[in-house]
Design brief:
seven-stranded mixed sheet, alpha/beta, 32% helix, globular, 15 helices, 20 strands
Length: 413
């Protein structure tokens, strides 16, 4: 084996971004993926880091978008598309969400007194109470609460209002908006091309992260092979990463998120929006409690977006972190039924359906309030987090990967 400067665990968006940034810095990188090939993300991509896109020249590597800014839509009772306000108070907080390696807590990053005051109120407010104080429409509040439930937040707990504002304050590839849809295959492909000459091994699950005297030394594969490197970046969540390093794993989250991709035999007309199906605000609390008990609620909040004229992505949350085969069939049937309500006759056009369920570490207010460096660092020197769970709110941003690489390179210097 070639001697490597860094090993990256996981070839998802965060892992590929970290490997590409390290390779760009001249490091010899080994990227390890447990599956036979990287899995294309299902559904819209939130908050793709514009600086990462620019630094890695991803458009030149093939990145293209079907939609660069997806507005939110809901039924009230007909479809209503929510416009954007460029002077929204959320934008004043954007500087915090995009703070860099050397910047600290939100209170130190925010420059405007009004922004600091608003932030102080938001950090102790649940999203449902926040929205109830601003809107009379239950349909609008229910649609907005979908973003507040990201990461497993209960919509009444402190931190959920900040999760909601986080989504509202994002930039997508230089354009205002929270969500975009890359052309099929181009996001991962552009990142793979940006990785360049780095070594890439699939079907290589990691069984342990190796360390000596508080410093990472490499990894051990399930095959028993040991690979050495002075830097290891993991796209897994914190508890899974530290479990590989020998620490006791934190209790697994009971709250998960399901993503389905419905492929159709024919092209259909679907509005370029994120359509949220959630009729009342209390649907989220009911679904959260059912998920905590390991059950599917009678009513489930869903998001629908067209990834292509013949492919509809469905995101469902909150759901149980562990879904049985029976639950998956039931969830798929519900998703197809709701798509058929949006586009009559589409149920008969379903060709196949793919399924992803994720349950990263439970979101928390402390995690949201932590500076970017604290979210990517671990207590082992040279071991960093670079995946979706290291973002303020779980997302395929690449921001955490960029911060982790900057921190790792600074440590080496």
């Amino acid at each position: 084996m070639t001697q490597h400067d860094a090993i990256v665990i996981g070839a998802d968006v965060g892992g590929l971004a970290a490997a590409a940034c390290l390779a760009k810095a001249g490091k010899r990188v080994l990227l390890l993926e447990r599956e036979a090939a990287p899995a294309e993300p299902i559904g819209p991509v939130y908050a793709l880091d514009p600086l990462l896109v620019s630094q890695l020249k991803l458009p030149k590597q093939g990145l293209r978008f079907i939609q660069r800014d997806l507005p939110l839509a809901f039924a009230a009772p007909e479809m209503f598309v929510l416009g954007r306000d460029s002077h929204d108070a959320a934008l004043a907080l954007r500087v915090w969400w995009w703070s860099g390696l050397g910047e600290g807590t939100p209170a130190g990053v925010l420059e405007q007194d009004k922004a600091r005051e608003k932030f102080a109120r938001l950090r102790v407010t649940g999203a449902d109470a926040f929205l109830a104080g601003h809107f009379e429409s239950e349909a609008l509040s229910a649609a907005l609460l979908f973003d507040a439930s990201a990461g497993g937040f209960h919509v009444s707990e402190p931190g959920s209002a900040l999760a909601l504002v986080w989504r509202a304050a994002q930039e997508m590839a230089g354009l205002e908006g929270a969500a975009a849809i890359p052309a099929p295959g181009t996001l991962l492909w552009s990142l793979i091309r940006a990785v360049g000459a780095a070594d890439f091994r699939c079907c290589a699950p990691v069984s342990a992260i190796l360390a000596r005297e508080g410093r990472v030394t490499g990894v051990r594969l399930k095959s028993g092979e040991e690979l050495s490197a002075g830097l290891v970046l993991s796209s897994l969540d914190r508890s899974a990463t530290m479990a590989l390093a020998g620490s006791a794993r934190a209790p697994a989250s009971r709250i998960g998120e399901a993503r389905l991709l419905i492929s159709l035999k024919e092209k259909i007309a679907f509005a370029p929006v994120r359509f949220i199906h959630a009729e009342r605000p209390d649907v989220f609390a009911d679904a959260h409690e059912a998920a905590r008990l390991g059950k599917l609620a009678c009513e489930l909040p869903m998001e629908f977006a067209a990834m292509a004229p013949d492919r509809i992505a469905v995101t469902v949350r909150p759901v149980p972190a562990m879904l049985s085969a029976e639950d998956r069939v039931q969830l798929a049937a519900r998703a197809v039924r709701e798509v058929a309500r949006l586009v009559p006759g589409s149920a008969a056009l379903v060709r196949d359906l793919s399924f992803q369920v994720s349950a990263p570490d439970r979101a928390s207010l402390n995690h949201l309030l932590a500076p970017p460096l604290a979210r990517v660092q671990t207590n082992i020197a040279g071991l960093y987090l670079c995946g979706a769970a290291a973002e303020a709110v779980p997302s395929l941003s690449g921001h955490a990967a960029r911060i982790a690489v900057e921190a790792a390179l600074k440590l080496q210097k």
